[in-house]
Design brief:
Blueprint (H helix, E strand, L loop, with lengths): L12 E3 L7 E3 L2 E4 L3 H12 L4 E4 L16 E2 L8 H11 L6 H20 L15 E2 L9 E2 L6 H16 L2 E3 L2 E8 L5 E8 L7 E6 L2 E4 L10 E2 L8 H8 L4 E2 L4 E8 L7 E2 L5 H5 L3 E3 L19 H15 L4 E4 L4 H8 L1 H9 L9 E10 L2 E3 L11 E3 L4 E2 L11 H19 L14 E3 L6 H12 L6 H23 L13 H22 L17 H4 L3 E5 L5 E5 L26
Parallel strand pairs: 1-23, 2-11, 3-4, 3-12, 4-8, 12-21, 13-16, 20-22
Antiparallel strand pairs: 5-7, 6-7, 9-10, 10-11, 14-20, 15-19, 17-18, 18-19, 24-25
Helix pairs in contact: 1-4, 1-10, 2-3, 3-10, 5-13, 11-12, 11-13, 12-13
Length: 587
């Protein structure tokens, strides 16, 4: 790769893990098998690059297949990329990078048609070959293409997995990526990974490659209740931080307003009630049947997600209850069965029949608007390391993702990454990796539950200086316990955990949790999906800017701000704004 980055050498840290016992080589390694990862892999392979796909579970087991609502693009009559741009900028609450959004909305329609050409089958209007389009929150036009009623992600995943298998791409399934390999100049040289029993190799190994594409999805498992699958433990963001890459906007975690409420003790992945249900006319009501969104926003139930989530929480607090209701009884059985069969089945599996009763709903962690900072070609601040999809912060989402922009972002920016890699000429063999980085002490596997509960209590939908301070203190305590266990071998000390999947995942969760809390403490305003009770107003004068956060070899965080809502370049000399007065200790 020819791009030069801001990194000057291997200054990061790594997880405690055995040395790789096997290795393979490639031109590109793509980590993740959702819409972003598989699109990037197919495009790189088509450009003649030897491409290896590494995925944590099976090829079709990532976050993409859980996407219900659809993919947003200006495909309908009367709709335009400019209108899609306007809706995205409004939802992003002043922090979208307009150039990135413009790339998304202008390239999006053709990217969707290429997806269709690859085999994806979208629902069509009755008696027509035209794609059926619906609306979701924050959109002023019908521009959401869906498949199988409410199984869009599953159909996209099916089509892309079939294309990958047809193309004969090399894949390593059931593999947890551990760390980035770098050479003496700090350039990407591949990844280390651990194959969990059923892959092509057992144990820790390495894929040596001069280009690595992170497409690892989100980090929803940092909270107790989330719509994300169990594999979403922030592995890509944590890897990038340890490698010295910049992350941004981690404080902006979108809580989906309508998640099936299963009780106060419910933990792990919760059933999503797609925004498309509201797009088709469902109403949010309280226990008395009152529609509380009317009059709060011009779009009522279809307001941007942060507004709806806050309204649900406010009404719940006012009435001293845990949830509100989504009422779609007027759909009738036929519409439920045809348009939302997946959601209908999920509700009935939990003893709720939406045909005859309202659905109890409450907000739950859904999507990370921030992640590893990239430019418009998906390049991070570490040369040779790319990121796309939910793990990335392209600037598209700002402070709050517009509904159904995520699948489109994965498509568009994966194609941009592949184009950048292809334009770089023949692949240059990666230099020999240099492993001089210090090891990061591991968290006890069972501590992941403590991380989730700390984050839910202190950094959930409602945040304050006091709640975030408590969260930071409790997370610091978990980190310190890990440090002490690793450094004190005496029999009386707490024994350090053995390296393994559960310990690595818990350590990754703690890493991203501490960075999220550090950013949320710094941002003393309410903006998008970051809601500070003690700073209830948006403050453009002070905070219409981003944090750029890196993790040093000494395990301290460096927190800088951008000068504007735009990001500086990721490659070449980059301006270094003065740090904020306070920096946080690192994971």
């Amino acid at each position: 790769m020819t791009a030069t980055g801001t990194a000057t050498g291997p200054t990061g840290i790594r997880l405690t893990a055995p040395a790789p016992g096997w290795s393979i080589t490639a031109d590109v390694v793509v980590v993740g098998s959702g819409v972003a990862g598989l699109t990037a892999a197919l495009r790189c392979a088509a450009a003649g690059r030897r491409t290896v796909v590494v995925t944590k579970a099976r090829l079709d087991d990532g976050s993409t297949r859980w996407a219900q609502g659809g993919i947003a693009a200006a495909l309908g009559d009367g709709d335009t990329p400019e209108q899609h741009l306007a809706d995205t900028l409004v939802a992003g609450a002043g922090l979208c990078d307009e150039e990135a959004v413009r790339a998304l909305v202008t390239e999006g329609p053709d990217a969707v048609h290429r997806l269709i050409a690859a085999g994806a089958r979208f629902d069509t209007a009755h008696g027509s070959d035209e794609i059926a389009l619906t609306r979701e929150g924050g959109h002023h036009r019908n521009r959401i293409a869906h498949a199988g009623g409410d199984a869009t992600g599953a159909e996209i995943s099916r089509a892309l997995v079939a294309a990958v298998r047809s193309a004969g791409l090399r894949t390593i399934e059931n593999a947890l990526v551990l760390d980035l390999l770098t050479d003496a100049e700090g350039r990407t040289a591949g990844v280390t990974l651990h194959v969990m029993g059923e892959g092509q190799h057992d144990g820790v190994g390495a894929v040596h490659a001069p280009a690595v594409v992170l497409a690892t999805g989100g980090m929803g498992q940092v909270f107790s209740a989330t719509t994300n699958p169990a594999v979403s433990t922030g592995d890509g963001v944590a890897l990038a931080l340890r490698a010295g890459a910049e992350v941004s906007d981690l404080e902006f975690v979108q809580f989906h307003p309508t998640v099936l409420y299963l009780g106060p003790e419910a933990e792990g992945q919760q059933p999503l009630i797609s925004e498309a249900v509201r797009g088709e006319g469902a109403h949010l009501v309280d226990a008395d049947g009152t529609r509380f969104m009317v009059g709060q926003h011009e779009l009522a139930e279809l307001a941007p997600r942060d507004i709806v989530a806050k309204a649900i929480l406010r009404r719940s607090l006012e009435q001293g209850v845990e949830h509100m209701y989504l009422d779609a009884r007027h759909f009738g059985a036929e519409m439920w069965e045809r348009r939302f069969p997946t959601i209908l089945a999920a509700c009935r599996a939990h003893g709720i029949d939406p045909v005859t009763e309202p659905i109890p709903v409450a907000p739950a962690a859904h999507y990370a608007s921030g992640g590893v900072r990239t430019d418009l070609s998906g390049r991070t601040t570490v040369p040779g390391l790319y990121a796309c999809g939910e793990v990335a912060c392209t600037g598209v989402h700002g402070a709050n993702r517009l509904a159904s922009n995520s699948l489109l972002e994965g498509l568009v920016f994966a194609e941009r990454i592949a184009a950048d890699i292809a334009a770089d000429g023949p692949a240059v063999p990666a230099s020999a990796p240099v492993e001089t980085r210090a090891s990061l002490p591991l968290l006890q596997p069972e501590a992941h539950v403590a991380v989730q509960r700390i984050m839910t209590a202190g950094a959930g939908v409602l945040r304050s200086a006091a709640s975030l301070a408590r969260a930071a203190e409790d997370l610091d305590r978990l980190h310190q316990e890990a440090v002490e266990a690793a450094s004190d071998p005496t029999p009386a000390s707490v024994k350090a955990p053995e390296p393994g999947v559960e310990a690595w995942e818990a350590t990754n969760l703690l890493c991203v949790a501490r960075v999220l809390v550090a950013a949320a403490r710094q941002r003393e305003e309410t903006r998008g999906c970051h809601w500070r009770e003690d700073h209830p107003d948006r403050d453009d004068a002070s905070w219409r800017r981003h944090f750029r956060i890196t993790l040093g070899a000494d395990r301290t965080l460096s927190v800088h701000t951008t000068q504007t809502a735009g990001f500086p370049p990721t490659v070449g000399p980059a301006p270094q704004p003065a740090p904020l007065p306070d920096t946080e200790p690192t994971p």
